[in-house]
Amino acid sequence: MTVIKVHHLNQSRSLRILWLLEELNLPYEVIRYERDATTRLAPPELAQIHPLGKSPVIEIDGQIVAESGAIVETIVARHGQDLVPPKDSDAYIQHLELMHFAEGSVMTPLLLNLYTARLGEAAAPLQPRIQQEMANHYGYLETVIRPSGHFVLDDLSAADIMLSFPVSVLSRLGLEDSYPNLAAFNQMVRSRPAFQKALEQAGGD
Ligand SMILES: N[C@@H](CCC(=O)N[C@@H](CS)C(=O)NCC(=O)O)C(=O)O
């Protein structure tokens, strides 16, 4: 089996990929990059791997893949079918929806919140809408989580791995008390041995 190379930026979505690889017990190599201490941006070396200059990026069987959702789908299609519901099931559609929701929807208000925080009072007119959309998206996730504590299946799925990143932001925002199911999900993720190994590889989160 070929070794998957992971171009990992500290404190980034790339943790999803390390966690997935640990869950699947696949051989991988981590190439580490550090954010600029002032700007928090990735170093220019990442743009030599993929033109966007962002992380995660992987090299798998000679191909470069960017976008954490595409990376997760590529890896599970080859090595982790148990992490995706059967294609002819209703759960498959829900899984697909949440895989896309994780980057295509919930990250938008979170990023707006992050960036507008730098504007101070100038961002005040935008804040009610941003907060409303954060509550909308987190509120939705809070209700769709299953009694098992996972999002789609009774056990871990690729959607859980994708959603772990936006859900982890809740604790940084001090909002965990408002979303007890998501707080429990976050604890479940962090208690998994594979996640802890991924955190070690990542040098923390
Ligand atoms: N939608 C992309 C987002 C990639 C992304 O924005 N990565 C961030 C880290 S979480 C990054 O590389 N930021 C550094 C920069 O933009 O310079 C994905 O899911 O992979």
Explain what you see:
With 205 residues, this protein is of the alpha+beta class. The protein folds into 2 domains: 4-82 and 194-202, Glutaredoxin, CATH 3.40.30; 85-192, Glutathione S-transferase Yfyf (Class Pi), Chain A, domain 2. It contains 8 helices and 4 strands; from the N terminus they run βαβββααααααα. The chain has helices at residues 14-23, 68-79, 90-104, 107-116, 127-144, 158-173, 180-191, 193-202; strands at 4-9, 28-33, 57-60, 63-66. α1 (14-23) links the parallel β1 and β2 (28-33). α1 crosses α6 (158-173), α3 runs parallel beside α6 and α6 (158-173) packs across α7. The protein is globular, with a radius of gyration of 17 Å. It binds glutathione (GSH). Glutathione binds next to α2. The site of glutathione has 13 residues, from α2.
Strands, helices and their partners?
Elements: E1 4-9, H1 14-23, E2 28-33, E3 57-60, E4 63-66, H2 68-79, H3 90-104, H4 107-116, H5 127-144, H6 158-173, H7 180-191, H8 193-202
Parallel strand pairs: 1-2
Antiparallel strand pairs: 1-3, 3-4
Helix pairs in contact: 1-2, 1-6, 1-8, 3-6, 4-5, 6-7
